[in-house]
Amino acid sequence: MVQPEVRQTAIVASKNGLHARPAIQLAELAQSFSCSIQIVKDDLVVDGKSVLQLMTLAAESGSSLMVVAKGVDATAAVAAITGVIETEDQPSA
Amino acid sequence: VKIERGDQAILVDWGAIRGRMFQDSRCEARRSRTNFQKENSMKFSEFISLKSIKVNMVSEGKTEAVAELVQGLVDAGSLDESQKDGIIQAVMNREELGSTGIGRGVAVPHTKHSSVKEIVGTVGVSKGGIDFRSLDGDKVNLFFMLISPPDRPSDHLRALENIAKQLQNETFCSFLKQAKTVEDVAQLLSEADENHFGS
């Protein structure tokens, strides 16, 4: 059976970019899904379940990220993860 | 237009000045990291205060560890003594939002603080490990602390990018955890900056 693949672009809303806290939040969220999740920025492709890899994106506010999920819960995963990326940060970073 | 010999000398001088101005502007750009530029991650040598590095951390608890790292930066002259308590509190407030213990024995405690004009950082090594309420529950052996000015989120991201890149390398992490002297750590950071660990 072919695993469904879902892709969606999201714009980083946090004015501080994808710094440690959103990276941790994103990785923890990604780990709650069984599908594989990759985050793509320009020519960089990282594992969405790895905090360290997410931090290497150095994704600034307004940058465009492509979320690519493959697996049975890919649709839900992409919706949840793009939601986090497009959420504004809390005041203290 | 005919260019005389004297004019050529002036042109050469002007070219040199322009070149220097271009280099200076590049340096400035590297420091300011505007949102409009895509540059490489910030090297350790650009933000780690070597004098502040702690290779044998004595702390056992989280707040104590943060205070020890901040004290190292104060002692190195990278932070103002009068701001110490406020910075420790700010780092701990940040930790309350979620631990920066990201697993694999590593933590990146950080905060923004208006008392710093440019990003400063330090490295701490604990042989026994410190309970930092990490994501994976493991004790932390390696600390990378960052204190950033509030108006330079891009610098913070670039510094984090470099730390994260290097920490993915098992050899780098392993050697750092075994470091016995500040010079050992400084050497490893320098080698990392020169891509000796393949990042």
Description:
Chain A is of the alpha+beta class and 93 residues long. Chain A contains 3 helices and 4 strands, in the order βαββαβα. Chain A has a 4-stranded antiparallel beta sheet, with helices on one face. The longest helix of chain A has 12 residues, at 20-31. The radius of gyration of chain A is 12 Å and the shape is globular. The termini of chain A are far apart. Chain B is globular and about 35 Å long. In chain B, strands 1, 2, 3, 4 and 5 form a 5-stranded mixed beta sheet that branches. Chain B has helices at 5-32, 62-75, 84-96, 153-167, 170-178, 182-193; strands spanning 101-103, 106-107, 110-112, 120-130, 140-148. Chain B has 199 residues and is of the alpha/beta class. In chain B, helix 2 runs antiparallel to helix 3. Chain B starts with a helix and ends in a 6-residue tail after the last helix. Chain B is 46% helix and 14% strand. Chain A binds chain B through residues 15-21, 24-25, 28, 42, 51-62, 90, 92-93, and chain B through 35, 38, 41, 93-94, 97-98, 100, 102-103, 108, 110-112, 135, 153-154, 156-158, 160-161, 163-165, 167-168.
